[in-house]
Amino acid sequence: MSAGNLEHLEQEVGRLRTENDDLRRQLVQMQKMSAVGSLASSITHEFNNVLTTIINYAKMGLRHKDVGTREKAFDKILSAGHRASKITTGMLSYARTQGERRELSDLVAVVEDVLVLVEKDLQMHRVRLQTDFVGRPFAMVNANQIQQVVLNLIVNARQAMENGGTLYLSVRPNEETSMAEISLRDTGCGIPADKLREIFEPFYTTKQADQQGQGGTGLGLALCREIIEAHKGRIRVESAVGKGTTFTLKLALAHAPATAGAPSVAALPVVKAS
Ligand SMILES: Nc1ncnc2c1ncn2[C@@H]1O[C@H](COP(=O)(O)OP(=O)(O)OP(=O)(O)O)[C@@H](O)[C@H]1O
Ligand SMILES: [Mg+2]
Question: Strand 165-174 and strand 234-240: pairing?
């Protein structure tokens, strides 16, 4: 092969590699939006409830002129406003493309930012949420990608509990292994032992797309595994048919910064002073 041909071939390989990377990034973003899309109705529902609270307390404040009632109305309006702000901030932080950058992140805060988006959906499907956060483990991660993984696992767990159930979610440091562990246990249908490997394969699914055409691509767990492995972490599954399933994520523990304990930026309500 001539030097000219070889050079041309190398250029072509480089171009295909860039194209492949771009398509992969688009796929991850599309899967991310599809997962949160399945929550669109519950999030809108909750936002509507918050607005109803604000409207009703504003009316009460206007009707009753006494200081006590008005103060109570302002309190309720303020906390409803904070709640609304938390939901929109959570949504924006989830939807943004953060690139590949990794930062020292508080894993409890990362998980809590996802919970703001799913709480109503779980409630609407009669799934009780029980959390157990031990300490404030930190890890060097791309928080946005870890949110995508946690959201996928929560949506899967909820879908596995068609008649309701309990979702146990824990975040804890394991000092012996120097790993932070995020564990999600559901009381759903479970996965047969011979399928436990297959579920991580791209396009393996036992689900039909819903009425909005969302879900059932079989890409959720494949991307979860890819993201966790790119972080040099581990994703493990244990399951018993008819009893439930546990997914555990393990990520290398990092030293918490001096300011640890403060809420994440994404968790802070955005209140603009006028
Ligand atoms: N918590 C769980 N309980 C029972 N089965 C599960 C659970 N999580 C995943 N599965 C099984 O693994 C399969 C693959 O999951 P994955 O998230 O990759 O795709 P999906 O949920 O089917 O599709 P999508 O994520 O695009 O909505 C599911 O179809 C389901 O059969
Ligand atoms: Mg899924």
Answer: unpaired
